[in-house]
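Fig. S4 source data, part A: sequence.
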Amino acid sequence: MKINLSGHHVDITDSIKQDVNEKFSKIAKHFPSLISLDVTITKDHKQFEVEIHTNYEGSRVAAKGCDDVMYPAINEAKKKLDAALKHRKGQLKADLHEKPVSTTPEIAHEIIQEMELK
């Protein structure tokens, strides 16, 4: 999986790249059809904001994490992305199952009118 890492008011160092690659390696194993992640780390007003965008099975999935320290913000965004991908995977699996056919229940007064009462 390719990770496109960019920073806004943050210098992306080798240690940040290594940490991001380690954190998202587990997601890459669970979702092998993921091709790439776009990770943006932003620092505004003494708070770090991590945004992650990807495409999974035809839909755009995004997650965002905020914290005063960068590494917990990355971890929060990773957890949200994992939850969003699991949710999307569940939706796709649910679509594969055959939906039950609903029949309209007969109303009691219609049944009584059809009966021949003497």
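Fig. S4 source data, part B ends here. The radius of gyration is 24 Å.
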